[in-house]
Structures are given as structure tokens and as C-alpha cells.
Amino acid sequence: MKRFIFILFIGFSAGQLHAQHVPLDLKTLINQSFSYFPAFKELDQAVAVENQRIDLAKAAGLPSVAATGSYNYLHPVSVVTIPLGDQVTRLNIMPNNNYKTMVNGSYTLWDFGAVKTVVERAKAGLQYAKDNALYNKNQMAFQVANIYFQIAYLKSAIAIQDSVINFLQFNKRDTEIKFKNGDALKYDVLSIQSTIDQENNRKIDLQNNLSKQYNLMQYATGVQVSKEGTDFNFPAITESSDATGILENAKTGNAEYLLLKDKITLAEAELKMSQIQGKPSLVLNAGTGFANGYVPGINKLRYTYQAGITLNIPIYQGGRIKKQVSLSQGQLLQSKLAQQSLDNTFSRDIAQTLTDVESNKSSLVNANEQIMEAKEAQKFAQSRFRNGTGTNLELTNASTNVQRAELTRLQYQYQLCIATLELARLEGLVYW
Q: Any coiled-coil ranges, and where (predicted)?
């Protein structure tokens, strides 16, 4: 299931977000994906099946009652010869036609906790199914949020492209006037038009990627998101916790850790079930019904009943139980060792993500300063161009620098948002 959902959105970069800052429409889209995506119906059914397994396991400890009916024809049958005077009388002590109807019941009085162990194993399976559903919800929420903020990034990038194109078109008109007055060359007009065409191509690429993200969002949620009026804002970013604190929170809140704990619990239950096999059991048996074959009227049906206790003591089973116990112990050890690997993986990912957060915060400060400087240079170049002291190349370069600075800041904002989203995923925050 994990692989199934990841394949759907393969190629998306990792990301994370703190719960208290999640936009309301993002929460709506995430919850919509839970009810729309077919995989979650399958996961819910898996939970229902595990509940039924618990009921089935408990039923093994309840009394069992069965009704039986049988007919048997026997020949020859035992005959007793009795001499009576000059004659010999032959008496059948059992009939040729045998009839029997019974209602039999049995109840295990003592089984060394076998039924209890099976019930505990079924409960562990139920918890695993629930945590598996939570894990896949976390993954789906992460992917929907990724699409959501990718859309936000692309829409903002398109807005920057529009501002650059508008600026270049405005300067093209000024250059055309200068060309008509003999203050500029045809080359200047063509150069600006070439730059406008390049920026339009970039805008087309961004719009194409945006359309793909809208399609992915609809595929994941079943909702056709409006291309106008939808508020795709970046979340507010709060100060991150230290790596140790995030790892401790992950151990109690992240679904991967919960699943690993469930696997350990399942392995422990399997070990108990292996150890309890081959133990004695004490079973109460009782039955009542009608049967023939009782002298003197052997063909007459008579009421009968029976009751007793059966002690079952397995003696030899070819070493199967011992081998099963050894296998279960190995599986338990494997699950426990997996926790160390998971700790190492999470420690690495948390440290790298915190580094990304701090790096993007620092870069944002510099990017804001660069934008202010680039805009001042752009105004200065535009003024020089209008006054005839500047060149078209100087103006185009100034405009390009503003665009690059704004796109750089947007990229850092996006990367900071994604890094925060990744921290939330690692910590196991339920932000929807």
C-alpha cells in the first residue's frame, strides 16, 4: 500500500508543515482525498476484517454444539444361542439396522491460555491495520500538500513573469518611439521583442506545469480546483524544535514508528502462540439423543446421554514446535533490530531538514535585500534609458536581475515551506 500511493506521485520533492498554520482549504482537500481515493476504502475494510478476526478468535473459547444423525446396516451381527428344553432359541444382541441421533457439546476447560493468546494476536493485527491506515493517510496528506504548495509556487512564478513581460512591453513602446525619432536602432526594438518572446515561453512552461498540478490534485481528491480565486498561500513558519525533541516526538507520533511497534507486538504474540502449541488441554464433552440396539428391544429407539472429560497430551510432533519457536524468536529479534535502523534514518533526515530550514531562512534575508537593490537598479536604468544616457542592454539586464531576484526569493520561500512540511511528516503531526 505504501508503494502504491508513492507511485501515484513519484517525482515530487519531500516537504512538511506545522498544524496550526495549515490553510483551511488545504485541510479540506486532504480530507477529501481520504474519502475519494479508493485505497482508503480498502484500508478501512482491512480494519473491519481484523475486527472480525478478534471475534473469530474469541469464538474458539466458547462451547461448541453439533447435532448428528446416523444409520448403519450391520451383517452379520452377534447372536446368542439359548437352549430351552428340546429347542434352541437364537437371540440377536444387536440389530442389523442401527439408528442414532445425538446432540453433542464440548467445552475446553483448560488450554494453557491458547485462546487468550490467539485473541491477543488478533488484537495486535487490528492495531497494525489501524496504524497502517494512519500511515497511508500521512503519506497522502504529504503528497496533497506537496501539490498544493507546488501550485502556489507556480502561480506566484507566473505572476512574476507577468510583471516582467509588462515591464518589457512598456519599455518596448518607449524604444519604438525612440526608433521613430531616430534615437534608437531597429536592433534595440528587436532585442526587446526577443526578450519578451523568451519570457512568454517561460510563462507557457510554468502554465503547463500548473495545469499538470491541477490535474494531479483532481486525480488525488476528485475535486477540480478553480484556477481563479483559490487561495494558495504559503504557511506561516515557526521556529523549529531541536533534532532530539523532534526524534522523540516521532517515536510516539510518526506512523512508521507505530507500525514498527505493532510489528514487534505481532512478533511477540506469534512467539507466545508457538510456545503454547503442544501443551495439554482438558475438554468437557457431553451429548444426548436417541439410539437403538439396547436389549431386550434392540430395534426400539431409546433416549440416551453421555458426559465425560478428555485430557489431550501431545507427546511427539517431529520437533515442529521447537522449530516454530525458534523461527518466531528470530522474527522478533529482526523487528527489534529494525528499530535501530529506523532511528538512524530519522536522525539523518531530521538533521538534514533542519539544516534546510535554517539555510532557506538565511537565504530569504539575503534575497529580500537583493530584490530591493535590483529594483533600485532597474529604476535607475529605466531613467537613464529614457533620458538617452542608458542603453537597451543595460535596461534589459536590470529587468532580468529583478526577475531573477524575485524568482530566487520565491524558490527559497517554497523550499522553506517544503522543509517545514517534511518536519511535520517526520514528527507525525496530524495537520489536517
A: 357-384
Question: HSE-up of 43 (CA within 13 Å, CB side)?
Answer: 23
Using pLDDT thresholds of 50, 70 and 90, give the confidence band for residue 234: low
Residue whose entry in the numeric block shows the C-alpha cell 513581460 = 165
Question: 20: which DSSP letter?
Answer: G
118 within 8 A of 91, measured Cβ to Cβ: no
Is 10 domain-assigned?
A: yes
pTM exceeds cut of 0.85: no
Domain assignment present for 112 = yes
> pLDDT by residue (tens digit) across 236-261?
444 556 888 889 889 988 999 999 99
What is the edge-to-edge ordering of all strands in the sheet holding 64-73? 64-73, 97-110, 281-291, 302-312
Domain of residue 230: give its range: 2-427
| Of residues 293 and 227, more confidently modeled | 293
Look at residue 354 and tell me whether its pLDDT is greater than 50: yes
DSSP 8-state class, residue 386 = H
**What is the domain-level CATH number for residue 205?**
1.20.1600.10
Surface-to-core class of residue 247, CB atoms within 10 Å of its CB (0-12 exposed, 13-18 middle, 19+ buried): buried
Total structural domains in the chain?
A: 1
Residue 188: burial class (beta carbons within 10 Å; 0-12, 13-18, 19+): buried
Rounded Cα distance between 322 and 208, Å, is 63
Residue matched to cell numbers 524544535: 241
- Set of cell numbers at residue 192: 526587446
Q: Does residue 432 lie within any of the structural domains?
A: no
Residue 345 within a domain: yes
Alpha-carbon Rg for the chain, nearest whole angstrom, is: 40
Cis peptide before 76 (omega within 30 of 0): yes
**278 and 319 Cβ atoms separated by less than 8 Å:** no
DSSP 231-273: --PPPP-PPPPPHHHHHHHHHHH-HHHHHHHHHHHHHHHHHHH
Of the candidates 133, 144, 139, 134, the one whose C-alpha atom is nearest the C-alpha of residue 220 is 144
